[in-house]
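Fold Annotation — chain and its backbone

Fields — amino acid sequence, structure tokens

___
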Amino acid sequence: MQVKRVAQLSVSIVLASAFLSAVLIGLAASDIQAASGARPSADCSRLIAFGSNLIVNGDAEADVGATNHVSVVSPSCWTVESNLTVVSYTVPGSPTTTFGLNYFAGGPDTAISTATQTITVSSLASMIDKNVVEVSLKGWLGGYSVETDTMTVKATFRSQTLEQRGELTIGPITADARDDTTKLLPLSAMTKVPTATRQIVITMVAIRQQGTFNDGYADDLSLILNAYQVFLPVIRR
């Protein structure tokens, strides 16, 4: 009987130890997630359709934003070069115009930061090649106080062979345009999608002119395609 009780106690200790290990591993994973800024289920898929925003995570909300000007949180669904980062609006010195929880910034210790996203639109080829598809690029761009750091967002149209077919750009917003205050301003541009376009590459470019932190800011980015119909007059005889 005593042996049986000892065996049961040993099993209980082993199970408790295993449970504690699982909890600690889960906590460690949470710590890693918090440190990296990544959320576990960022969905980078997109619906290619007229009238839909084709930029994924254009609002910087797919990640937990950095809470200081030292950490770097690379935005999900973007290919980043240098220290372009997602920043929480709660960080002192952030823009007063806010969209959700976070915004994009050029980041610490970097003169030029970029983030790109490639959108394949080959499923819309038949309409694009009829030259009846319009594209609208919109976003809120800005910077910090009197500093002249800037953000530009560009859409580059490419063919199946990656030949550049055209370009559409918004920005930069100058310090004068911001009245030397820390804020974001709305910008938009529109054009026809060039025929033979099969990819649209979105690029954020933040350029630092002053200080150590690249204060080129962006948020609420969108790229929307719409098709329009051309009605020819009916000639009656």
